[in-house]
Specification:
heterodimer, A: mainly alpha, Ammonium transporter fold, two-stranded antiparallel sheet, 14 helices, 65% helix, globular, B: alpha+beta, Alpha-Beta Plaits, four-stranded antiparallel beta sheet, 2 helices, 6 strands, elongated
Chain lengths: 409, 112
């Protein structure tokens, strides 16, 4: 057995803390984009999951996700309550860091993924049914998908699908669930006739900064060691984010005649989400190209959503879903063993099979997540009702669901 | 006794206040309001979508003065609030039946 490496352990611990910070960052990123009356309701839908999903992770999620494999689809229950997850490293999950450190690092990913979905149904979801959905979604959707892609024995991983930090597991999963959510939950009252204008963009920009900062832990930490690969992933992450930012603003400037701050924030997040699956597999130049593609494609998707008629309030599908798909597929183009020997070669390195397996990964995760989420939402809607009452929606979630206001009455 | 109600562009408030102070207007009440007239609103852009915003922020000034001062006050507001561009606002003159100072109970012109 390889002994614990102190530098690796310190790095992964710090990375876990960075990823944890992304959820409050996401909360204010989203909150700035809603109307003032829904500020706290929006923040709460992310913030509560830090507690709620961490609890799930310890008692059920971790063993379902990473526990000993059952048929490639799910982990068994032998690590329930973190039983036998100790300070000794696990050979497959960060062989030089304590197993507990890997488990807590992964916990933060499980927390932020359902939080990302909340942008789709912002300003209109009841809190209780939302909690029930998030809990069941994590158990029935996130944990299995996480197992398929990242656990030893997971069927997509065995198939050769590679996803460095969560293009499939986090971004496509939340985007696909968001798509299901907007098909089940009808648009906000007044959608299409009233203006839903962000109430506090400085808040959204600070949230973007926190997300970007945390993303270094998200992607860099996924190397699970303080080594060259972590540095390479760190660099790719930054380049993906900056390229997304610059491209989105440039395209918007050409299209609408104005460079906007919300465009800068959106482009950065699109770039960061899209580089995520490839961050540990592609060169800096490829990261720039991936970020540029993300900025342009996500802008086009978001700008054209109004023609479709679904109210994906904060563009989870257009940014995270689309980013997850193109990022995962572009790994099949740009991945190189020269960057990461444990990875794979993509199309540009003369290997066609990786792109095919990445595409299978996209279809499998996309379809499974969409269908399961749709059924789950329909059942909860039938049993309890997902939608707030009309007067609560008019009054806002802050008062209507939480009896508080963000800015005084 | 008349109330003069002026809707002006917010950034003109200081100039208007100074101009009125100079002719001896000793008090005023202002409110931040929103509205539109011929200026209509403006467009805002969020994530590639354009939104028409109809109501623009304005300041409403309310001043109650003696009949004799109405024209002078209106004149000063016109001068100081005007930019010459659409959206400069409007002035309304409204009759007032009476006024009472809360502290002393004085009424009529003494209370102004």
């Amino acid at each position: 057995m390889i002994p614990i490496d102190k530098a690796d352990t310190a790095f992964v611990l710090i990375s876990a803390a960075l990823v944890m910070l992304m959820t409050p960052g996401l909360a204010i990123f989203y909150a700035g984009m809603v109307r003032a009356k829904n500020t706290l309701g929006t923040i709460m839908q992310s913030f509560i999951l830090i507690g709620f999903i961490s609890l799930e992770w310890v008692y059920l999620g971790y063993t379902l996700s990473f526990g000993p494999d059952v048929g490639g689809f799910i982990g068994d229950l032998s690590w329930i309550g973190l039983r036998s997850v100790s300070t000794a490293p696990h050979p497959s999950y960060g062989p030089t860091v304590p197993h507990l450190v890997f488990a807590v690092f992964q916990c933060m990913f499980a927390v932020i993924t359902p939080a990302l979905i909340t942008g789709a149904f912002a300003e209109r979801m009841r809190f209780g049914p939302f909690l029930l959905f998030s809990m069941l979604w994590t158990v029935l959707v996130y944990n299995p998908v996480c197992h398929w892609v990242w656990a030893s024995g997971g069927w997509l991983r065995e198939l050769g699908v590679i996803d460095f930090a969560g293009g499939l597991v986090v971004h496509l999963a939340c985007g696909s669930a968001a798509l299901a959510a907007v098909t089940v939950i009808r648009p906000r009252k007044g959608y299409g006739s009233e203006n839903f204008i962000p109430h506090n963009l400085p808040m959204t920009l600070i949230g973007t900064g926190l997300l970007w900062f945390g993303w270094f832990g998200f992607n860099g930490g996924s190397a699970l060691a303080a080594d060259g690969l972590a540095g390479s992933a760190f660099m790719a992450t930054h380049l993906g984010g900056m390229a997304g930012l610059v491209t989105w603003v440039a395209v918007e400037w050409l299209h609408r005649g104005r460079p906007t701050t919300l465009g800068a924030a959106s482009g950065a997040v699109a770039g960061l989400a899209t580089i995520t699956p490839g961050s540990g597999f592609v060169s800096p130049n490829a990261a720039v190209i991936i970020g540029c593609i993300a900025g342009a494609v996500c802008y086009a998707c978001v700008a054209s959503k109004q023609r479709i008629g679904y109210d994906d309030s904060l563009d989870v599908v257009g940014i995270h879903g689309v980013g997850g798909v193109i990022g995962t597929l572009l790994v099949g183009v740009f991945a190189s063993k020269a960057v990461n020997a444990a990875g794979a070669d993509g199309l540009l390195a003369g290997n066609t099979s990786l792109l095919l397996s990445q595409a299978i990964g996209v279809v499998a995760v996309g379809v499974f997540v969409y269908c399961t989420s749709w059924v789950l939402l329909k059942i909860i809607d039938r049993l309890y009702g997902l939608r707030v009452q009309e007067d609560t929606e008019l009054q806002g979630l802050d008062l209507g669901e939480h009896s508080e206001t963000a800015y005084g009455a | 006794m008349k109330k003069i109600e002026a809707i002006i562009k917010p950034f003109k408030l200081d100039e208007v206040k100074k101009a009125l102070n100079d002719i001896g207007v000793t008090g005023m009440t202002i409110t931040e309001v929103k509205g539109y007239g011929r200026q209509k609103g403006h467009k805002e852009i969020y994530r590639g979508a354009e939104y028409q915003v109809d109501f623009l922020p304005k300041i409403k000034i309310e001043i109650v003065v003696a009949q004799a001062m109405v024209e002078e006050v209106a004149e000063k507001i016109l001068e100081s609030a005007r930019t010459g561009k659409i959206g400069d606002g409007k002035i309304f003159v409204i009759p007032v039946d009476g006024a009472i100072r809360v502290r002393t109970g004085e009424s009529g012109r003494e209370a102004l």
